[in-house]
Amino acid sequence: MPAPPAASDLVIPASPGSQRVLSNAQVASIRAWWGRAMAGRVRVQLFVDGAGCDACEVTSRVLQQLQTATDKLQVSVQLAAQARGAGEAFERLPETRVVMSNGNVVRFFGTQVGVEVTSLVQTIADASLPSAPLPPDAVKGARALAPGSWLRVFVGPACTHCPGAVRAAVALAHANPRLAVEVVSTSEFPELARAFKVAAVPTTVVNGRAFFEDPRSPLDVLEALHAAPPLGAAGAPGSA
């Protein structure tokens, strides 16, 4: 059972009327899909930059609406300044964290709106599963990944292929709780995209140097992870 929100969490009131980001039809569609796809409770944490952060406000409203689509989703919203005080570093906000059933955390950087919402909705559903949606050989291969392995999926707001790339990475994170997975909006963090020479979305960066410029199956990504083990901390998740 996910832990309840900490006392320091800043809970933003639900947005009424025209302030809603998702339409009633979108929420209804998500509710129906989650009704079939979600197996258990999922905790999502949103870290925001306070007043003046439009991207933070939009993402918080989306998460408020998503929470109305199922009683299995627990959302907490916290000021990044408070978390920094507890020793965490936040370089890119808003940051949305989906806590998986195996304890792994998938991080989304940027506004969760448009097609990005599809990736988030799928990740929440997959995070609720009791085991990774992969064949046994793939699960075994994922668990054998070198320590420090990581994936960073670059996405765009109108990219219909991006959810498939994100879902492949999430499936592997579900099999290996030590595999770090980040999803980054290229439009909001272009400097990071340039650092990895991202020319198109989706682009999946594998341990900092091998990548795909289109959606691949989890097995393809797993093969790349084994073929290109991590070289070190530079550019890896958690570094600036």
Chain-wise SSE layout:
Layout: H1 24-37, E1 42-48, H2 54-67, E2 73-79, H3 80-85, E3 95-99, E4 105-109, H4 115-127, H5 136-143, E5 150-155, H6 162-175, E6 180-185, H7 190-195, E7 203-206, E8 210-212, H8 218-227
Parallel strand pairs: 1-2, 4-6, 5-6
Antiparallel strand pairs: 1-3, 3-4, 5-7, 7-8
Helix pairs in contact: 4-6, 6-8
Note down, in words, how this protein is organized.
- With 240 residues, the protein is an alpha/beta fold.
- The protein folds into 2 domains: 7-96, 3-Layer(aba) Sandwich (Glutaredoxin); 131-231, 3-Layer(aba) Sandwich (Glutaredoxin), CATH 3.40.30.10.
- Helix content is 35%, strand content 18%.
- The protein has helices spanning 24-37, 54-67, 80-85, 115-127, 136-143, 162-175, 190-195, 218-227, and strands at residues 42-48, 73-79, 95-99, 105-109, 150-155, 180-185, 203-206, 210-212.
- Strands 2-1-3-4-6-5-7-8 form an 8-stranded mixed β-sheet.
- Helix 2 links the parallel strand 1 and strand 2.
- Helix 6 packs across helix 8 (218-227).
- It is globular.
- The two termini are 33 Å apart.
